[in-house]
Design a protein that fits this description.
It contains ten helices and twelve strands. The chain has 334 residues and is an alpha/beta fold. The strands form two sheets. Strands 2-1-5-12-11-6-7-10-8-9 form a ten-stranded mixed sheet, with helices on both faces. Helix 2 links the parallel strand 3 (52-54) and strand 4. The structure holds nicotinamide-adenine-dinucleotide (NAD) and 4-hydroxy-L-threonine-5-monophosphate (4TP). A divalent metal cation binds at residues 163, 208, 263.
């Protein structure tokens, strides 16, 4: 049987926990048969902790994986001090993401799994994107088509507005964008998650979903028209749902994804319920991209050793989910 291409795991911020996690993920997965990955990173950061094979192409990863971490070298410009990010290393962080996407677009990587970046560190080096999500869309030449989903065994959430201030989120929330995001989520649940008739729950924006206009009228003027348009297309969606109760254990079984109006409305419930198993997924692009749901964790970053201080669960969940999504896309999903 032909093996699927390996996943490309990126460097992330080299001063964060990414290098530790890459080494630990390899230790946990090397004999598991759950898929192969290669790390686009600086071999000097991990070679004291795990055996490393430097590879020149993704195709060499499979043969190396059982015995060593396959590393496609992306050297850092300056010495890495764990916990102390340095924007001079932004070039390596960005190059790693760029190469991973190129391999995925060419079908030479089964998907991209990103290690966390610190947005302000990249911004200090002139990086013009607020996060991976928007950068990946630009690399795929599909700006504006990207959406962010966070998925865990208990909940899936999609924020309509993402990396903007709360004030800007309110100013930029439109019926058109809610419809576009819900359509992409609906299609992705079918294609990448094997959910053939997705059920969408659309959140309100205001307390009590506006209380019939008493506490804000965005539900009436913006959200309900989006729901009407989605239903007219045959998409199963309900709402506007009061945001304070829609994430309860009783409510969650009735939908497959919650479409939320702003970043923290979506991410707070998910990370509170399931930080360990939560995965950040980019939908709407031709490539598969997943990521752990946590950040760079500079406060616990240390030299990469044989013992990993950071919790690798979310990265492992991201790697597994990328493999599952890839299987669904290729008709191998179950
Ligand atoms: N996917 C991404 O690239 C991504 C996601 C979220 C945040 N970030 C970035 O990360 C940076 C730091 O963000 P933050 O401090 O808000 O969040 P964070 O997730 O980095 O850290 C929050 C707390 O959780 C702990 N933590 C995080 N991951 C952990 C792990 N795997 N094991 C054990 N403890 C862990 C940290 O030590 C810290 O105490 C920011 O610059 C942010 O932009 C990146
Ligand atoms: N908003 C995400 C989170 O808090 O988990 C995170 O910042 C990652 O965003 P990108 O995947 O766009 O880097």
């Amino acid at each position: 049987m032909k093996h699927p291409p390996p996943l490309a795991l990126t460097l992330g911020d080299p001063a964060g926990i990414g290098p530790q996690l890459a080494a630990e993920a390899w230790r946990r997965l090397r004999h598991s048969g759950e898929g192969t990955f290669f790390w686009l990173g600086d071999p000097r950061l991990v070679e004291r902790a795990v055996p490393v094979t430097c590879i020149a192409t993704p195709e060499e990863a499979a043969a190396a994986f059982a015995d060593s971490l396959p590393v496609l070298p992306v050297p850092c410009e300056v010495d890495v001090i764990p916990g102390q990010p340095d924007s001079r290393n932004a070039t390596a962080t960005i190059s790693s993401i760029r190469q991973a996407v190129e391999y995925a677009l060419a079908g030479r990587a089964g998907g991209v799994v990103t290690n966390p970046i610190a947005k302000h560190v990249l911004a200090a080096a002139g990086f013009p994107y607020p996060g991976h999500t928007e950068f990946l869309a630009a690399l795929c030449d599909m700006p504006g088509e990207e959406i962010m989903m966070l998925a865990s065994p208990q909940l899936r959430v999609v924020p309509v507005t993402v990396h903007v201030s709360l004030r800007n989120a309110l100013n930029t929330l439109t019926t058109e964008r809610i419809v576009q995001v819900a359509e992409i989520a609906n299609a992705a649940l079918k294609r990448d998650f094997g959910i053939m008739a997705p059920r969408l729950a659309i959140a309100g924006l205001n307390p009590h979903a506006g209380e019939h206009g008493m506490m804000g009228d965005e539900e009436i003027t913006i959200v309900q028209p989006a729901i009407d348009r989605l239903r007219a297309q045959g998409i199963d969606c309900r709402g506007p749902m009061p945001p304070d109760t829609m994430f309860s254990a009783k409510a969650r079984p009735y939908y497959d994804v919650a479409i939320c109006m702003y970043h923290d409305q979506a991410l707070i419930p998910l990370k509170t319920l399931d930080m360990e198993e939560g995965v950040n997924v980019t939908l709407g692009l031709p490539i598969i991209r997943t990521s752990p749901d946590h950040g760079t964790a500079f406060d616990i970053a240390g030299p990469v050793t044989e013992t990993c201080r950071a919790d690798v669960s979310s990265l492992l969940a991201a790697i597994r989910l990328a493999g599952e999504m890839s299987a669904y896309r290729e008709g191998r999903g179950s």
